Amino acid sequence: MSTPCRDANPATAATAALIPAHAGSYALWLVAAQRRRLTIGSLGALAVQPGFYVYTGSAHGPGGLRARLRHHLGRTHRLHWHVDYLRRATQPVEIWCSDDNAVSEHAWSALFAATAGASLPLRGFGASDCDCPSHLFHFSRMPDHAALAAQLRAATRARRPFLRFSAKEAVLPVAAPVPRA
Ligand SMILES: [Zn+2]
Protein backbone atom coordinates (compact mmCIF):
# COMPACT_ATOMS: atom_id res chain seq x y z
CA MET A 1 0.00 0.00 0.00
CA SER A 2 1.45 3.34 -0.96
CA THR A 3 0.46 6.30 1.13
CA PRO A 4 -0.73 9.23 -0.93
CA CYS A 5 1.09 12.41 -0.13
CA ARG A 6 2.23 15.53 -1.86
CA ASP A 7 5.86 16.54 -2.04
CA ALA A 8 5.47 20.29 -1.84
CA ASN A 9 9.20 20.91 -2.02
CA PRO A 10 11.53 19.21 -4.52
CA ALA A 11 14.15 18.89 -1.76
CA THR A 12 11.94 16.54 0.22
CA ALA A 13 11.34 14.35 -2.82
CA ALA A 14 15.08 14.31 -3.54
CA THR A 15 15.83 13.40 0.07
CA ALA A 16 13.31 10.59 0.00
CA ALA A 17 14.86 9.24 -3.20
CA LEU A 18 18.18 8.77 -1.34
CA ILE A 19 16.63 6.72 1.45
CA PRO A 20 16.79 2.94 0.96
CA ALA A 21 13.58 1.28 -0.22
CA HIS A 22 14.27 -1.42 2.33
CA ALA A 23 12.68 -2.34 5.62
CA GLY A 24 14.16 -0.57 8.61
CA SER A 25 13.79 1.64 11.63
CA TYR A 26 14.07 5.40 11.70
CA ALA A 27 14.27 8.44 13.93
CA LEU A 28 12.67 11.50 12.35
CA TRP A 29 13.91 14.83 13.75
CA LEU A 30 11.52 17.76 13.47
CA VAL A 31 11.92 21.37 14.52
CA ALA A 32 9.22 23.66 15.87
CA ALA A 33 9.78 27.40 15.64
CA GLN A 34 7.00 28.57 17.91
CA ARG A 35 4.48 27.52 20.50
CA ARG A 36 1.31 26.02 19.18
CA ARG A 37 -1.47 23.85 20.53
CA LEU A 38 -2.34 20.78 18.45
CA THR A 39 -4.95 18.11 18.85
CA ILE A 40 -3.38 14.74 18.07
CA GLY A 41 -6.34 12.69 16.88
CA SER A 42 -8.07 11.02 19.80
CA LEU A 43 -4.91 11.08 21.91
CA GLY A 44 -5.39 14.61 23.17
CA ALA A 45 -3.74 18.00 23.11
CA LEU A 46 -0.06 18.56 22.52
CA ALA A 47 1.45 21.88 23.56
CA VAL A 48 4.11 22.26 20.88
CA GLN A 49 7.21 24.01 22.24
CA PRO A 50 10.05 25.55 20.25
CA GLY A 51 12.90 23.09 19.79
CA PHE A 52 13.40 19.63 18.43
CA TYR A 53 11.19 16.59 18.37
CA VAL A 54 12.36 13.08 17.60
CA TYR A 55 9.84 10.50 16.50
CA THR A 56 10.79 6.83 16.18
CA GLY A 57 9.17 4.34 13.86
CA SER A 58 9.84 1.39 11.62
CA ALA A 59 8.79 0.62 8.07
CA HIS A 60 8.35 -2.94 6.95
CA GLY A 61 5.77 -2.56 4.19
CA PRO A 62 6.24 -2.12 0.44
CA GLY A 63 8.71 0.65 -0.34
CA GLY A 64 10.24 0.32 3.12
CA LEU A 65 11.93 3.34 4.63
CA ARG A 66 11.78 5.38 1.42
CA ALA A 67 8.01 5.19 1.11
CA ARG A 68 7.46 5.92 4.79
CA LEU A 69 9.89 8.84 4.94
CA ARG A 70 8.52 10.26 1.68
CA HIS A 71 5.21 10.39 3.49
CA HIS A 72 6.68 12.02 6.61
CA LEU A 73 8.73 14.55 4.62
CA GLY A 74 5.87 15.57 2.37
CA ARG A 75 2.63 17.27 3.21
CA THR A 76 -0.30 15.00 3.74
CA HIS A 77 -3.96 15.76 4.05
CA ARG A 78 -4.70 12.28 5.31
CA LEU A 79 -3.94 12.25 9.01
CA HIS A 80 -3.13 8.63 9.76
CA TRP A 81 -0.22 8.55 12.20
CA HIS A 82 0.08 10.79 15.26
CA VAL A 83 3.15 12.35 13.67
CA ASP A 84 1.03 13.49 10.71
CA TYR A 85 -0.63 15.95 13.09
CA LEU A 86 2.70 17.13 14.48
CA ARG A 87 4.04 17.72 10.97
CA ARG A 88 1.55 20.58 10.66
CA ALA A 89 3.54 22.58 13.20
CA THR A 90 7.08 21.38 12.45
CA GLN A 91 9.66 21.02 9.71
CA PRO A 92 11.86 17.96 9.11
CA VAL A 93 15.51 18.37 10.05
CA GLU A 94 17.22 14.99 9.90
CA ILE A 95 16.53 11.31 9.52
CA TRP A 96 18.60 8.68 11.28
CA CYS A 97 17.83 5.19 10.07
CA SER A 98 19.00 1.63 9.86
CA ASP A 99 17.92 -0.42 6.88
CA ASP A 100 17.89 -3.84 8.44
CA ASN A 101 15.02 -6.11 9.31
CA ALA A 102 15.26 -5.59 13.06
CA VAL A 103 12.46 -3.56 14.66
CA SER A 104 14.43 -1.03 16.66
CA GLU A 105 11.86 1.72 17.25
CA HIS A 106 11.05 0.63 20.80
CA ALA A 107 14.69 0.28 21.87
CA TRP A 108 15.44 3.64 20.28
CA SER A 109 12.51 5.25 22.10
CA ALA A 110 13.89 3.99 25.41
CA LEU A 111 17.30 5.31 24.49
CA PHE A 112 16.00 8.77 23.56
CA ALA A 113 13.92 8.85 26.76
CA ALA A 114 17.11 8.30 28.77
CA THR A 115 19.12 10.92 26.86
CA ALA A 116 20.02 14.11 28.73
CA GLY A 117 17.62 16.93 27.93
CA ALA A 118 14.76 14.70 26.76
CA SER A 119 11.19 15.37 27.82
CA LEU A 120 8.07 13.37 27.06
CA PRO A 121 5.53 15.76 25.55
CA LEU A 122 2.50 13.48 25.23
CA ARG A 123 2.11 10.01 26.69
CA GLY A 124 1.15 7.37 24.13
CA PHE A 125 2.28 9.35 21.07
CA GLY A 126 3.15 6.86 18.31
CA ALA A 127 2.88 4.04 20.84
CA SER A 128 -0.68 2.80 20.32
CA ASP A 129 0.53 -0.72 19.56
CA CYS A 130 3.28 -1.15 22.14
CA ASP A 131 4.10 -0.68 25.80
CA CYS A 132 6.45 2.29 25.34
CA PRO A 133 5.42 5.47 27.21
CA SER A 134 5.90 7.37 23.95
CA HIS A 135 7.67 7.32 20.60
CA LEU A 136 8.07 11.11 20.68
CA PHE A 137 10.53 13.17 22.70
CA HIS A 138 11.34 16.84 22.85
CA PHE A 139 14.76 18.45 23.19
CA SER A 140 15.44 22.17 23.41
CA ARG A 141 18.77 21.47 21.72
CA MET A 142 19.34 18.68 19.26
CA PRO A 143 21.59 16.04 20.83
CA ASP A 144 24.92 15.35 19.17
CA HIS A 145 24.51 12.62 16.61
CA ALA A 146 28.01 11.24 17.10
CA ALA A 147 27.38 10.76 20.79
CA LEU A 148 24.18 8.82 20.20
CA ALA A 149 24.99 6.88 17.04
CA ALA A 150 26.98 4.16 18.75
CA GLN A 151 24.27 3.62 21.35
CA LEU A 152 21.54 3.53 18.72
CA ARG A 153 23.53 1.06 16.66
CA ALA A 154 24.08 -1.14 19.71
CA ALA A 155 20.35 -1.00 20.51
CA THR A 156 19.62 -1.96 16.91
CA ARG A 157 22.14 -4.77 16.69
CA ALA A 158 22.31 -3.63 13.08
CA ARG A 159 24.42 -5.42 10.57
CA ARG A 160 23.85 -2.65 8.04
CA PRO A 161 25.48 0.81 8.10
CA PHE A 162 23.67 3.40 10.15
CA LEU A 163 22.47 6.20 7.86
CA ARG A 164 21.92 9.90 8.44
CA PHE A 165 20.14 12.26 6.06
CA SER A 166 19.56 15.98 6.15
CA ALA A 167 15.88 16.61 5.62
CA LYS A 168 15.76 20.40 5.71
CA GLU A 169 13.31 21.47 3.09
CA ALA A 170 15.23 24.61 2.23
CA VAL A 171 18.58 22.97 1.52
CA LEU A 172 19.86 20.28 -0.77
CA PRO A 173 19.71 16.86 0.85
CA VAL A 174 22.87 15.05 1.78
CA ALA A 175 23.38 11.40 2.58
CA ALA A 176 26.26 10.57 4.85
CA PRO A 177 26.74 7.03 6.10
CA VAL A 178 27.99 7.28 9.67
CA PRO A 179 31.40 5.68 10.08
CA ARG A 180 31.52 2.79 12.45
CA ALA A 181 32.90 3.74 15.84
ZN1 LIG B 1 7.25 1.19 21.39
Element layout with pairings:
Elements: H1 10-18, E1 24-32, E2 36-40, E3 44-48, E4 51-59, H2 64-73, H3 82-86, E5 91-98, H4 105-113, E6 136-139, H5 145-156, E7 162-166
Antiparallel strand pairs: 1-4, 1-5, 2-3, 4-6, 5-7
Description of the molecule:
- With 181 residues, the protein is an alpha+beta fold.
- It has one domain (10-166).
- It is built from 5 helices and 7 strands; from the N terminus they run H-E-E-E-E-H-H-E-H-E-H-E.
- It has helices at residues 10-18, 64-73, 82-86, 105-113, 145-156; strands spanning 24-32, 36-40, 44-48, 51-59, 91-98, 136-139, 162-166.
- Strands 6-4-1-5-7 form a 5-stranded antiparallel β-sheet. It has a two-stranded antiparallel sheet with strand order 2-3.
- Helix 1 runs antiparallel to helix 2.
- It binds zinc ion.
- The site of zinc ion has 7 residues, from helix 4.
- The site of zinc ion (ZN) has 7 residues, from helix 4.
| Ions and ligands | zinc ion
Sketch the topology as an H/E string, one letter per element.
HEEEEHHEHEHE
What's the number of helices?
5
Query: Over all CA atoms, what is the radius of gyration?
Result: 15 Å
Broad shape: globular
Helix content: 10-25%
Overall structural class, as computed from helix and strand content, comes to: alpha+beta
| Proportion in β-strands | 15-25%
Give the neighbour order of strands across the main sheet: 6-4-1-5-7
DSSP strand tally: 7
Number of domains: 1
Largest sheet: 5 strands, antiparallel
Task: Report low-confidence residues grouped into runs of 5 or more.
Answer: 1-5, 169-181
Distance between the termini: 37 Å
Oligomer: single chain
Mean pLDDT: 84
